Amino acid sequence: MSKHITIDPITRLEGHGKIDIFLDEKGSVERAYFQVPEFRGFEKFSEGRACEEMPTLTQKICGVCPTAHHIASSKTLDALFNVNPPEAAKKIRELMFNAFMFEDHMLHFYVLGGPDFVVGPDAPKAERNILGVIGKVGVDIGKKVIDMRNRVRGVNATISGSSLYPVCGLPGGISKPLTAEDITSINEIIVPGLVKVSTIDEKGVSGVEEYSGTFLQQLITGLLCPPEALGMGKGSTEATASVRQMLYERMIRTFQFRIANMVRQEVINKILLKNGFEANIVKMKFNSVTDADEAVKAKWLGDLLRGYDPKRGEEKPFTIDEVRAMFGYGPKETGHKEEVPSEQTEEPNVEEEEENENREEPSQPDNPV
Amino acid sequence: MGKPKIALYWCSSCGGCEESVVDLAEDILTVVEAVEIVFWPVAMDFKYEDIAAIPDGGIVASLINGAIRMEEQARIAKLLRQKSKYVIAHGSCAHLGGVVGLANFYKKNAVLDRAYKEVPTIHNAQGILPKEKTDDSGREIELSAFHDTVKALDQVIDVDYYIPGCPPPPNLIKNAIMSLLEGRLPPKGTVLAETKALCHTCPRRESKPDKIMIREFKRVWETEWDPSRCFLDQGIICLGPVTRGGCGERCIQANMPCKGCFGALESVIDQGAKSASFLASIINAEDPEEISQIAASIPDPAGLFYRFSLPSSILKGKIDKEAK
Amino acid sequence: METFEPKIVGFLCNWCSYEGADSAGKAQKACPANLRVVRVMCSGRIDPQFVIQTFMEGADGVLILGCHPGDCHYKEGNYNALKRYTVLKNMLKGFGIEEGRLRLDWVSATEADKFVQVVSDMVEHVKQLGPFNHHNH
Fold first, then answer.
1. A41/B111 Cβ within 8 A
2. Which of residues 144-173 of B touch A (CB under 8 A)?
3. Residue C83's closest chain B neighbor by CA?
4. Whole-angstrom distance, CA of residue A125 vs CA of residue A129
5. Under an 8 A CB cutoff, do B315 and C84 touch?
6. Does B25 contact A146 at a Cβ distance shorter than 8 Å?
7. B5-99+150-181 homologous superfamily
8. How do beta strands C61-66 and C102-106 pair?
9. Has residue C136 been placed in a domain?
10. Mean pLDDT across the stretch C92-116?
11. pLDDT (tens digit, 9 = 90+) per residue, C106-126?
C-alpha cells in the first residue's frame, strides 16, 4: 500500500524545512524529498545598500550564527577597502568568533541536537527538547550549562554590543577597543568558566555513557548497515547515512576538542593560587592519551569499521552479508561504499597524568581571522 | 486545568528572536514552570497538526516572529490567531516587516532570479525556480507559494501586542510574558517598550548640544569619532531621535550609531519619513546648492531610513506600476 | 483615449504662497484646474509623511510653495522646508518616484503670475510622467 508521509515542520534546528517520504507497496522507503519553505532574498535586497551596512545586514541571515556573518562581512570590507586591520582588531575579532563558536556548539549540543542523544529518539515528543535534557541530567547541571552559555554570550556583548546582534565590524577593524576593565571582566567569565565546563565533563553528564553508546551504535549502523535498514532508499540517498554520522561525530568532537583545548593546567593553577591553594593539587583528567592508548584506540576503531568482534576470534570478521542478515536483509548484489570518517585531525589534545610530563601543544584554531 | 499554553512560531525569520528567548537564561526555567509551551519549532518537536488539534482560544498567547513572505507563514499565522487568545508580534520583522522587508524594493521575480540564476556561485543551467507543485514520476510534493511582497504580521492577522527590536532584548520578552501571566496587560495594540525616543536614555545624551548643525554627514569608514559624544553632533547618522527606546542602547555601547530597529514613536506612521525630516533639519546651510551637497552625503537614504520598517511604511515598497 | 489630467496637491503657506494664489484668483488669471490646495501656516510645517500619504491617496504630483528665503513669516520655516524637500526627494528616488513629481518653489503674496507659471509647468511635467498609479497594498 503506497503511502505518503509528511514531516512538517522539521524541528530543533535553525531554519524551515519539510520532508516528504513516499513508501512503496511493501512499506519500504521509495523516495524522500527535503524542501525548504523559506526564502528571503538577501542576495538581491543587499544591492543598493551602503557597503558598511553589510556586516549588520548579512548577520540577519541567521540569528544563531550572526557573528559568523558579521566577521565574514567585516573581512570582505577589509578586502574592499584594501586595508589590513591592526593586530588588536584581528585578535578581538578572533576572540569574538571563538566565544561565539563555543556558545553556538553548546546550543547545538544541549538544545538542538542533544535531545536526540541524551533523551533519545524514542522518547515522547514532549520530552525531546532542552527541558527533557534538563530533566535527565538534573536541574543543577542544567543551570550550570545555561549559566555558562549566558556568560560567554556576555563576553560577546562586551566586545560587540550584543551577542544577538554584533555591530562592531568596520572595514579595517572594529568600532570599540577592549579596555582594561573589559579584559578583566572577560577573564572573570572565561577563566572560572573553563573549569566549570570541564567539571561538568569530568563528572560526566548523566546519560553520557548512554549517548556514547548510542553514538557508537549509530556509527556502526551508519557505516556497515544496509541503507534500507535506516529507511534510506536507492539512489543518491545511499551516502547519506555515513555522511550524517560523520557530521554528528564532527560536531560533538569539535565541541569536546574545544573544551579540552581550553582546559590547561596553568589555568587551573591560576585559580587555585588565587584562592589560596597550592598549584597542582587539582588536575583535570580527560581522556588520557598515551602512545599505548593511541594504539589501542586505532586498533579498536579499525576493528569497529571492519565489523570485527574479538570474541569471535581473529580469523572470522563479520562480513557485510552477515551484518545485513542481522538486520533481516538478504545479501547485497552491488558493492556498498564503506566510508571511513577522517576524524584523526580533530583529536583533542589533553592533559596527561602525573607520570607523563609531556604536555601537547594545542592545535591552531580552525579559522584564524 | 493545566498551565497556560504558549506557542512560539517563526515566519520569514532568522531565528534571532528565538535566541533572545533562550537568552532569558535561568529565567527561562521560571517561565517554563508557569507555562506549557505547545509549539516552538526551534526547540521542540511539535508539528503543525498538533496546533490544529488545540481548541480555538486554547493557547493563551502566541509569540510570532518573522515577516510574512510565504503563503505557509500566512496560513500558520492565521491558524495560531484562531487558536490563541492573544497574539504578540515578536521582533522587528513581525512588528514592522524587518530587514527582510527591504526585498520590497525589488520585484519578486528579480529576487528569485538573482538568487536562483544569477549569483556567481550557482549552477542552474536549466534556470529552475522553486515551484509550488512538483511531480516526480507520479509523486506529488508541494512547496509554499512566495508572496509578491513582504508584509508585517498585523497586515495579515489581528495583533494584540508588539515586542520591538531586532532582536528584542530578553528582558522585554520576559516582561511581556510575565505581564500576560499576571494579568496586567496594557491596552491592546501597545508596543511593549519605552514611549520616548532613544535619545532620552542614551548614555551620550549629556554631550548633545541644544542645536545640532552639520556641514557634512560622514560615513563610518571615512572618519574617526569620539566614543563619548553624540553621533549626530559628529556628523554620523544615528536614528535615535526617531526610534523608540527600551533597547538598552546595545549598539551605542559598542560605539556604533542606532539603526532604528525598535521602530517609530507612538503617533508616527512612517519612521523613514521622520528620519528624512529630522536629518534634513540639522543641515547647516541655507543655499540650495549647499543643501543639496550635504543631503547627497547621506548614502542610500531609502535603504537607511526604512531598514526595518519598509513593509509597514506608507509606501510599503518600490512603486509598482504594473496593473494587476 | 482620454487625456490624462494629473491631480496635483499643493501645500501652500498662509502668509505668502496662499496669498499669491489668491491674488491670481482675484485677478482672474487662467490657471490649470488640476491643483487642489491645502493651506498650512508655514511651509516648514510640512512633514514628509504628508507628502508620502498624499501620493498614496491618489495625487500624481505634490507641490510645496513657500515664502522666498529671508521672507518667512516665522524666519526659518522655509529653510527647513527646503532642506526636508531635498532629503525627501533623494529618498523617494529609491522608491522609483520620478524627478518632478514633488516640487518646491517660492511664491510671494504678490506673485500671481509666478504662481500660475509654476502650477502650469508642474501640470505639464506630470502629464508627461503619467499617472502615479501604484499597486502597493
1. yes
2. 144, 146, 166-167, 169
3. B280
4. 8
5. no
6. yes
7. NADH:ubiquinone oxidoreductase-like, 20kDa subunit (3.40.50.700)
8. parallel
9. no
10. 94
11. 999 999 999 999 999 999 999
Own/partner pairs, B71-76, CB within 8 angstroms, 24+ separation: B71/B144, B71/B145, B71/B146, B71/B147, B72/A37, B72/B144, B73/B11, B73/B12, B73/B144, B74/B147, B74/B156, B76/B9, B76/B11, B76/B48, B76/B51
**Strands B161-163 and B84-90, how do they pair?**
parallel
Which pLDDT does position A114 carry in this prediction? 85
The per-residue pLDDT for range B106-127, each reduced to its tens digit, is 999 999 999 999 998 888 999 9
| C11-46 residue pLDDT tens | 999 999 999 999 999 999 999 999 999 999 999 999
| Residue C16 domain flag | no
Sign of the CA dihedral A225, A230, A235, A237? negative
What's the pLDDT at A307?
Answer: 52
Verify that A29 and A82 share a domain, yes or no: no
Nearest neighbour of C94 by CB, restricted to B105, B295, B296: B105
Residue A366 within a domain: no
Q: Which residue positions in chain A have pLDDT lower than 50?
A: 195-241, 244, 247-248, 252, 288, 334-369
Shared domain for A7 and A153, answered yes or no, is no
Closest in A13, A161, A164 to B254, CB measured? A161
Nearest-neighbour CA in chain A from B128: distance (Å): 14
Q: What is the rounded distance in angstroms from the CA atom of residue A289 to the CA atom of residue A52? A: 47
Percent helix, percent strand, percent coil in chain C, to nearest 5? 40, 15, 40
| Selection from A304, A135, A117 nearest residue A212 by Cα | A117
Q: Is the ipTM of this complex over 0.90?
A: yes
pLDDT, tens digit, 9 for 90 and up, residues B193-230: 999 999 999 999 999 999 999 999 999 999 999 999 99
- What is the DSSP code string of B97-123? -TGGGGGGGS-HHHHHHIIIIISTT--
Q: Between chains, do B318 and C95 touch, taking CB under 8 Å as contact?
A: yes
For residue C51, tell me if it sits in a domain.
Answer: yes
At B159, the pLDDT band (50, 70, 90 cuts) reads very high
Helix (H) or strand (E) holding A257: helix A240-262
| Among A2, A40, A152, A162, the residue to mutate for chain B (most B Cβ within 10 A) | A40
- For residue A141, give the CATH number of its domain: 1.10.645
B237 vs B276: CA distance, rounded Å: 11
Q: Do B15 and A15 touch (CB under 8 A)?
A: yes
pLDDT at B294 over 60: yes
Contacts of B255 in chain A (CB under 8 A): 168, 175-176
> In this structure, are A316 and A228 located in the same domain?
yes
Q: Pick B302's closest partner by Cβ from C51, C94, C135.
A: C94
Partner residue facing C56 (CB), from B286, B303, B315 = B315
Summarised one tens digit per residue, pLDDT across range C42-81 is 999 999 999 999 999 999 999 999 999 999 999 999 999 9
Cross-chain residue pair A165–B259, CB shorter than 8 Å: no
Residues A134 and A11 both lie in one domain: no
- Report the interhelical angle of C112-129 vs C17-26 (nearest 10°): 100
Higher pLDDT among residues B55 and A179, named by residue: B55
Cβ-defined contact of B250 to A162 (cutoff 8 Å): yes
pLDDT at A363: 35
Q: Which residue in chain B has the smallest CA separation from C45?
A: B277
* Beta carbons of B16 and A164 less than 8 Å apart: yes
| Distance, CA of B11 to chain centre | 12
Please answer whether residues A131 and A111 qualify as being in contact, where contact means their C-beta atoms are separated by less than 8 angstroms: no
pTM for the model stands at 0.79
Q: Is the separation of the CB atoms in C56 and C19 below 8 Å?
A: no
Residues A12, A54, single domain; the answer is no
